[in-house]
Amino acid sequence: MEFRIQLRSAQDVQEFVSIATRRSFPVRVSNHQHSVNGKNFMEMFSLDVSQPLWVCPECDEAEYHLLKWDVGRFTLD
Fold this sequence. Notes:
By secondary structure, the protein is an alpha+beta fold. It contains 3 helices and 4 strands, in the order βαββαβα. A 4-stranded antiparallel sheet has the order 1-4-2-3. The two termini are 12 Å apart.
């Protein structure tokens, strides 16, 4: 399961990382060329955040929907 997000500023990246960090499961973020730890601010900036990104949490369906809800202002789907 994955969904797309758009982060428009450093503040957006910081907010996304803060939300992801509160999760007990891994949250991977990619641009389909590179995949990084969505809980790591510096790794997130190794991606081109001006383009849509894919979030792939390694969790069950209920946790997936809760994460997607919490980052809802960034989602494109």
